[in-house]
Design goal:
With 80 residues, this protein is mainly α. The radius of gyration is 33 Å and the shape is rod-shaped. Helices cover 94% and strands 0% of the residues. The chain contains 2 helices and no strands.
Length: 80
């Protein structure tokens, strides 16, 4: 079955339909690409946040160890 554009414009109608189809696909791909970028950024943010949460345990231990060294220094100073 021939399309209406082909019947009206012949070969030019065929080229026009091809052009419209290509432009439609470009628009759809562009929308998908924008969604993909958003997902990639969300994954990066999640990875950074999880790394910070995992590191927080070690930071807290380090702070407590430093406080313990300072406290031990004060108690030794009071004994002298």
């Amino acid at each position: 079955m021939l399309s209406r554009a082909f019947l009206l414009y012949g070969e030019l109608g065929k080229d026009y339909l091809l052009h419209v189809g290509v432009e439609t696909m470009r628009r759809k791909l562009k929308l998908n690409h924008n969604g993909q970028n958003l997902i990639e950024y969300a994954i990066i943010v999640a990875l950074v946040a999880s790394a910070m949460v995992a590191m927080s345990t070690y930071v807290f231990r380090s702070v407590q160890a430093t406080q313990q060294v300072i406290q031990k220094g004060y108690t030794e100073y009071d004994e002298d």
